[in-house]
Prior knowledge:
The complex is a heterodimer of chains A (174) and B (583).
Chain A: H1 2-26, E1 35-41, E2 48-54, H2 64-81, E3 98-104, E4 107-112, H3 123-138, E5 145-150, E6 153-154
Parallel strand pairs in A: 4-5
Antiparallel strand pairs in A: 1-2, 3-4, 5-6
Helix pairs in contact in A: 2-3
Chain B: E1 2-6, E2 9-13, E3 15-18, E4 21-25, H1 29-38, E5 41-43, E6 50-54, E7 60-64, E8 67-72, E9 75-78, E10 84-86, E11 89-93, H2 94-100, E12 103-108, E13 111-116, E14 119-125, E15 128-134, E16 141-147, E17 150-156, E18 165-170, E19 173-182, E20 187-195, E21 200-204, E22 211-217, H3 237-241, E23 247-256, E24 260-268, E25 271-277, E26 282-288, E27 290-292, E28 297-300, E29 306-314, E30 318-325, E31 329-336, E32 339-348, E33 355-360, E34 365-368, E35 389-397, E36 407-408, E37 411-412, H4 413-430, E38 434-437, H5 452-466, E39 468-477, E40 487-491, H6 497-509, E41 516-521, H7 525-529, E42 534-541, H8 545-551, H9 554-572
Parallel strand pairs in B: 1-13, 23-27, 35-38, 35-39, 39-42, 40-41
Antiparallel strand pairs in B: 1-2, 3-4, 4-11, 5-6, 6-7, 7-8, 8-9, 10-11, 12-13, 14-15, 15-22, 16-17, 17-20, 18-19, 19-20, 21-22, 23-24, 24-32, 25-26, 25-33, 26-30, 28-29, 29-30, 31-32, 33-34, 36-37, 40-42
Helix pairs in contact in B: 4-9, 6-9
Amino acid sequence: MRNSRIVFLALLFIVVAVAAWVFLTARSKSPLGDHISVYYTKYDGTSEVAWPVSLRPQARDETPGERLQNAALYGAVQAVAGPPPTVEAIRFPAGTHVRAVRVTGSNADVDLSPEVKSQSGGSLGETGEFKGLVWTLTGLPGIASVSVRVDGRRLDALPGGHLELDKPLRRSDW
Amino acid sequence: MSQVVLEGQRIAIHAGAQGNDAVVGLHDVGFKTLLSRLGISTTWGAGERYILFTTPEPKIISFALGDVRYDAGEVSGQAGFAPYERGGEVYLPFYTLLRAVGFEPKIDGGETILQSQVEVDIQSRGQAARVLMHAGVPLAGRLIASSGNRIVYQFDGVGSTLERTRRVHAGGIDEIRIEQSGSVRAPVTRVTFVLSDGANASEMPSENNHDFQLAINGGRGRQVAAATAAPAPSPSPVETASPKSVVAVTAVDAAQSQDGFSVRIAVSGNASFEWHRLLDNRWYVDIHGATLQAPPRDETQTAPSVTSLRVHQVSGDSVRVALTLTGPKLVDVNPGADGLTLLAHNEDDDMLARSGSGSIGGNAVATAAPTSEGWKFKPAPAKTYVPTNPRLIVLDPGHGGSDAGAQRGGLSEKTLTLDISQRLRALLIVRGWQVQLTRTTDIDVYAPNDSAKEELQARVDVANNTGARLFVSVHVNSFVNDAPNGTTTYYYKTEDRQLAQAVHDRLTSANLGTKDDGIIKNNFYVVVHTAMPAILIETAFLSNPNDFALLQSSAWLQRIAKAIADGIGEYAGAPVAAGSGQR
């Protein structure tokens, strides 16, 4: 009788401990704050300007890893959409949008819609677009590089383009 | 099933009532049709929490599964219910989304009429303002009354849920009154602007037909002169019409202390700033919307961390304070209520941010772009490249064959790059160089309709396989609008900057009549993968009217070819005999 009570209490302790661990893990705080910096490139092709975009609060069941994934998705969508229309910024071709973002290790893999291929033919736009995207995502803690897909597929370079897109892009590329 | 009416066209959407909202499935065919008509793209994938919509404006509408909060641009709100996922489908608060993208759902005769709502945004600056009106459908403003200090515009086909009277008292506007009339299916919105004494208004061109813009200028005589059909010629009347900025840089004081070289910039008023660090250890901060009231400075310094200090007005409305650092020095940027303090440390640092921004005044704040792996200012050790053919220079006329590159008015990039390259070849041969072009006619170097990488690698192979001394790729730039112009020289490998600098110096000193867009590091394929010193020159912009005129001139093409040849000569000296390779 006494032994079964001890066993019962021990089991209860283990269940409570596991539940507490799961609860605390799920609620562990992400290093991401309440906003992220989204970058755009000015017409000079070199200056990156940041504008803050608020990030929705971390959900109770949102792990730090998922939080980073969500922030990367949000940041990429914002960067590809660009700043408000009154701001003079290099922008992706009209209609370009983010299909998906997947963070693996320190790399963010961004899948863009095929409209990105409709470049004007110059290097200024192509460079400015991707630079803003890379600066936005590598500004998130834990992300150091950005790889690019178009319509789900890897691409060596954009048609008629100049940038090498078959390897991850880093800030140090510029 | 609901019949939704957008601009008179019916779309069948599976949408049912849920509380005071309506629920719609993300993959509903009618819903997707509606989004397509509105030019809205969706980002969501299985397992994702966030559901994001991007409007053409652009504005991002953000929902999250299980969260009643939504974000629409900079505004947050509470949806009718939290989005949820069931059976692989995501269900969204339909009316909340419609309102977020500027439509008010109105029930009429058993149908849901999507009534576009006009948004009014006022950006005031001193005694001038820009009024931007936007709707989810084409927006045509009609001036229907103008008397005294009141002007009235009418917008057919759009409604408004905005407050009827908005007191502004800024930027030349006292008040804006908004009235809606008409029917659910044919709404009419009238906007009355009550201007301040002496203010006038003019219509401005808009980039798309969903916007309508007015420029209000409070700095001229008492008149109300709204333009009619003809747009105002100035693209930025707020800046041109506004009086002198109220923000001023009143003093700049520099001093050397134990910690380093400090610069105190006194600023009156609220201002934003951004700073940049260049690769050659130049550093500057621009204080935007400010007038320099202190004397301009251009001084040599003998501090351990700084060799020069310059203070001057740039671009009409920014004040620039520039430092030339003695090396990769950390510069602290500390904004405050009455200015900005800089401190250039004496010690070198190898992980430095390249740029940052912030604000001065009541809400002083500074942020710096974080450093990243590889972003170090210590120059990488130069690799040793020994050309097997030190007299050979490979020129790469960009594009060609099936890839025309940029095009405008019968001119194409591939033709221009070949023309310049052939002129350059002739000049270099006269100076004793051997020259090989990656293409001498209008062809693809690899094969017609090849992939971009195959084509670029083929050009790289020409240079690498011949052991050339230098590689120079010639291009012509283009952009989606005609604003940017100028000449840019790109390089990638640290040790190639010297070549880029030499050529770019000659390009800019040749007074070619276009802008100096600088020397930029970039991972362009051909300059990354060539073994020898390599640069890519974007000579000018086909998309810019001034540059376009230059590119049509044979004399100009000859001048730019000569400038490149001179730069090559400056970098490489005279050709050397085979076997005595040099870098």
